[in-house]
Amino acid sequence: MSSRPRYAEGTTTAIETSQMEIHRLLRRYGATEYSVGWSTDGAGLSFVYKGRRCSFTVPKPTAKDVPRGSPNGARWLEMEERRRWRCMLLALKAKLEWVTDGLATFDAEFLAHIVTPDGRTVMQHLDGSPDAKAKLLGPVSP
User: Fold this and answer.
1) Other Cβ atoms closer than 10 A to 111
2) Which of 29, 27, 34 is nearest to 109 (CA)?
């Protein structure tokens, strides 16, 4: 792991506050049907923008993610979960601003997260089919 500071490292912003900010952000840009659901692995975030449903996952950090030598693993996990929600807010804001400015299309910026008619995202389709992924993207470089 890199020793450089990570975005929002040390944030004290509550997860619920970040979620409310995401909700306001999405509404401001015209998205509808915002929802957040929780699982043991993290949270699912979805919304509809101009007829396209998008789904994101904010993975919950686990004990395996705690850096070696961290004096308080439980505290680190709490802080990391808050940081990840701040990152989600930043990513959505950047993508929506890029689309609004006409620098990219919504489909181009959100393609991996667009939900297809069968309920899976485009990326889930690719991950579920290594052959299709390899044909589309080519081999992974070391």
Assistant:
1) 14
2) 29
Tokens of 114: 């667009």
pLDDT in tens, 43-77: 999 999 999 999 999 999 999 999 998 889 999 99
Compute the distance between CA of residue 126 and CA of residue 137 in angstroms, rounded to an integer. 10
Residue 63 near residue 81 (C-beta atoms within 8 A): no
d(CA 57, CA 38): 10
Residue 127 lies in a domain: no
CA distance 134 to 131: 5
The answer to whether residue 73 is domain-embedded is: yes
Range of the domain at 98: 15-104
pLDDT for position 122: 94
User: What pLDDT score does 70 carry?
Assistant: 87
Please indicate, yes or no, if residue 56 is contained in any of the structural domains: yes
Given CA atoms 16, 117, 40, 68 in this order, what sign does their dihedral have? Answer: negative
pLDDT of residue 2: 57
Low-confidence ranges of the chain (pLDDT < 50): none
